[in-house]
Amino acid sequence: MKKVTITLGLLTALASGQALAVDQINAVHAFPPSLIYTQSFLEFVDKVNERGEGVVKINVRGGPEVIGLSEQPDAVRNGVVDMAYTAASFYAGTVPERDAMVASNTNAIYARENGGIDLLNEIHQEKMGTYYLGWFDSGVSYNFYTIEEPSIDEAGNLSVSGLRLRSNPVYDAFFQDYLGAQPISLPTTDVYAALERSVVNATGWTQIGLKDLNWDRFLNYRVDPAFFSTDMGVIVNLDKWNQLSEESQQILQEVAIEHERESAEKLADLAQEQQAQLEADGMQVVTLEGEAAQRFSEAARDSTWERMRRQMERHPSGLEHYDELIEKFNDL
Fold this sequence. Notes:
332 residues, alpha/beta, six-stranded mixed beta sheet, five-stranded mixed beta sheet, 13 strands, globular, disordered N terminus
């Protein structure tokens, strides 16, 4: 009987040791769970936890209610949390090279295959102390949305006169430098109330998620052409990454690369569906034509590249990788 007791105790100790051997990763996400982008991240988490059972597990702590969306990148950098699914624009001052994604005319599939994301990962490690795991939900463009019918000047350009334009770091260079707007900076979570109270009457947003946020209750017009690309991705504290087992690292990276492709393909189709649904529900489309449309599209890209140049010049490494990033994130 004594021998059995020792054997059971040993088995219990071994089981406990195996449980402790599982790499645990604490994660947060930038947006509420109702938003399609957060749902995409949670799908990634489920894939990791399924494939990594007994090896690695991601524990999602929550979203902006846990750590403010603009504070999440520093929380990862400082090791408060291990991982965040966030927009690279929230840490542009640290990694200005993120504008390569913002101004991209392609997606993560292209940038992963030609080494662009690996290069961005190297830059994140050097400048931020984080591991850039993947560019998720890429290739989804943005549009300009308004409550009232937007004004078009004699040259066919969009006029921002009279607009109370909501912005965030993604849009600022384009909205200010080209459109000449003086936008009101608001986090995503505050925009519904701002639209409802007419604090703002125009905003940029991606081609996906307007209904999820219920902003379509107020926004009645969309301006074409679209511009930019989403810059959502997953960053991991570098010290934490280096502490993970090789097997855990391999599982995380493999699943991330798979999810880059799957999310880009899935959201490309969804963007078309949601834009069509908004139009079916009454949203009207104002399309810039000819040279005005070309100026609009080029200005979104060029103003963002110029912002990247200015901000990179402030760092000790200067313009290293500037041209290479543009090449790797654009199908020129």
